[in-house]
Amino acid sequence: MSKFQALDLGLVVRGHGRHYIVEDADGRRFVCHPRGKKSDAVVGDQVRFAEASADEGVIEAVEPRRNLLFRQDEWKTKSFAANLDQLLVLVAVEPVFSESQLCRALIAAESAGIRAAIALNKTDLPGRDTARERLAPYREACMGLTVFEVALKADREGSRATLGPWLDGQRSFVLGPSGTGKSTLINLLVQDAQAQVGEISQALNSGRHTTTTTQWYWTDATRSTALIDSPGFQEFGLRQIDAAELWRYMPDLREHADCRFHNCSHIHEPGCGVRAAVEAGQISASRYRIYGEILEELQRKTW
Description:
This protein is of the alpha/beta class. It contains eight helices and 13 strands.
């Protein structure tokens, strides 16, 4: 008999330090801590846990993950969530979004095998045409990304109708900088979202950290559709990516990487298909510039 047969299987819906909220198959939630000193669980993990009391438990093991979305800089690794179906990168007409951060998020998702889409919010504002133009390369065939256009505050029902079918039945991670409308999106699609945050924060005794913790929300009573919200961030490191493999996680570069040399860096070698595609306008100059910047970062890695 497996030692895990007597343990409950649960879903991590929030974590704070060494304490986690774990939801069982019946929807009951427990405040759990891991056995021992090591804390490996992240939101979205399936864990085996033992009930210690009516609302507390001990995590004994983390089940194997099918994927993990994370970022890594020179100093630390930050895991966003595990076992995701898709990533929604939320950007806005205002404030003007960073294409570098957008690219980095998409590269992280591609490397983790997580499909992605972009949602452009605040399309009721005058700068929408400029934002649309900046996102044009992401709509093209070699990228193959869906780019939704919404106005989460100005057109609540239209936004719900636009995003709802794509989100339905999926576990979707919502990523984006502060001010783009993530909270508005969550409150639009999740009934009593703020109440859920308050209840979990009270259970974890971490109310002051409610804006700095990844949070799992069910949008339906059957718990088949989930939105996972994350805190904002300033940097998105990709040090988990091997420099020589970076181009493979950028579909437009990958599409044109028919180069003379098998180990082409796509920066200076003759006979480079990527550079030819940039010159022909088949790869956007901004994405190629961002590729060069990230490649330079990765080549400077020290271990």
